[in-house]
Automatic annotation (TrEMBL):
Biased composition (Acidic residues): 164-188
Residue span, BTB domain: 55-116
Species assigned in the record: Rhizophagus irregularis (strain DAOM 197198w)
Region spans: Disordered: 161-188
The organism's taxonomic lineage, starting at the top: Eukaryota, Fungi, Fungi incertae sedis, Mucoromycota, Glomeromycotina
Pfam families per UniProt: BTB (PF00651)
Official protein name in the record: BTB domain-containing protein
Amino acid sequence: MHASAVVCDERVTENQSQSPCKARHFKAIEGIPSTYILEKLHQLGPRYYGDKSTAFAELYVEGIDKPFWVHEEYLVLQSVFFQETLQNVTSGDIITITLPSPDTFEHILQYLYDGDADKWYDTLTPENYFGVWQNIESLGLGIEARAICLTYYHSEIKKKNLNDDDDDDDDEMIDDDMMDDDDEECIR
């Protein structure tokens, strides 16, 4: 399950005045690298994560019975899916999304706020890592999120399977799915 969205390329071409992927409210800070903005947002993330009083919208994930109070800046800078989804959302709206693995969303969202790769890595388990990967794909998260999941896969899952001497075809299928052409390009 993939979200249909245009993958953003931050580079501006010769005939283009600005990146087509900039969120509508980031035009005022054009010229500041998104990596710098994201670094500053991550520093403030623990303060804003789940903060209803400053939230842009109330987000529901089908299969989870509680709301997530989200801030547009944290989502659109890191997710192609949210860049597209939030284009027509106004402050205070209620949004409902469907994900392949709802149970793994909360840790992903927290990572989008605080950028703490180690903390997110520690939430991965052999039982949930493929669901996390499916959500990464569906949300259109970037190379950093993919790298965390792939690192877990290669250091924990693949290593365990080699130690078990298991020739299960499912392992090859998962490895092939996780390392498609887009991922090979991201890792280069």
